[in-house]
Design brief:
The chain has 263 residues and is α/β, with parallel strands linked by helices. 26% of the residues lie in helices and 27% in strands. The strands form two sheets. Strands 1, 2, 3, 4, 11, 12 and 13 form a seven-stranded mixed sheet that branches. The longest helix is centred in the first third of the chain and has 19 residues, at 11-29. The termini are far apart. The structure holds fe (ii) ion (2 copies). One fe (ii) ion binds at residues 8, 39-40, 66, 176, 178.
């Protein structure tokens, strides 16, 4: 089984990248599933039902989120009707939506889990190091092929989480920093790991935002609107091959796919 995962989609340029890149990458790699982190879809802040449907139309089988999950209020009731849109598992009990799902069928089933880290992160969520393992155990009753999007700031928390989950899931991939790390590897237990996938959108920017407005904020400390950048369109992520019988990863490869739109 082959899976493509793409990092945080930023704004309209990010959605344009998904539209252009996903069909191409899916074909190129012969991917069975595409998982996309959509937490910055709506002008950088969260996602709406319309944009979630748009990403799925472009080929996303599951959409994961992060600390921007609740930025757009209209997304809350949508979780009830769309189980393939995940919010982090470790929000308080009773929060709309779910943190895991199993997709596919006919011998190709993939479990996907979304969780949020806690170090230097805003939301005071429950401990992912305690909550994710039992959730994975439940999914393993259906399939050994499981991907976790661990949305967190620090490399240390993400690496520790990857080591905790090694051998229990097929893939642990980080998101949130928008900067792709170069530490892709298969851990000793057979879990494909990358600390951060990067982001999908305009890379001629400061993590997706207009350079001048971010620099101005750092110079003056005055509140400033961060506009979405436009240039340097690129999809960041990974493609992973998994042994369907064991759920162990066979290979992991990083994606940095540049997109040139003609208009
Ligand atoms: Fe993000
Ligand atoms: Fe984030």
């Amino acid at each position: 089984m082959k899976i493509i995962f793409l990092g945080d989609v930023v704004g309209e340029p990010g959605r344009d990248v998904v539209k252009a890149a996903v069909p191409f990458l899916k074909e190129k790699h012969g991917a069975d599933f595409v998982i996309i982190n959509g937490e910055n879809c709506a002008g950088g802040n969260g996602i709406t039902p319309r944009l979630a449907i748009e990403l799925m139309r472009y080929g996303a089988d599951v959409i994961t989120l992060g600390d921007h999950t609740w930025d757009q209020k209209e997304i809350n009731p949508f979780f009830e009707t769309e189980p393939r849109l995940l919010r982090p598992l470790n929000y308080p009990a009773g929060t709309p939506g779910a943190g895991s799902v199993v997709v596919g069928g006919n011998g190709k089933k993939l479990g996907v889990v979304n969780a949020l880290g806690r170090t230097f992160m805003g939301p005071q969520v429950d401990n992912p190091f305690l909550l994710v393992e039992p959730e994975v155990e439940k999914l393993r009753a259906e399939t050994p092929c499981i991907l976790i999007d661990f949305h967190a700031e620090t490399t240390s928390e993400k690496i520790a989480f990857g080591r905790l989950m090694d051998g229990k899931v097929s893939v642990v991939v980080g998101t949130h920093t928008h900067v792709q790390t170069a530490d892709d590897r298969i851990l000793p237990g057979g879990t494909a790991y990358l600390t951060d996938a990067g982001f999908t959108g305009p890379h001629e920017s400061v993590i997706g935002r207009d350079i001048a407005s971010v620099v101005q904020k750092y110079k003056t400390l005055l509140p400033n609107k961060f506009y979405i950048a436009r240039e340097g369109l690129q999809a960041d992520g990974i493609v992973v091959e998994i042994d369907e019988e064991t759920g162990k990863a066979l290979s992991i490869e990083r994606i940095q796919h540049k997109v040139h739109l003609s208009s």
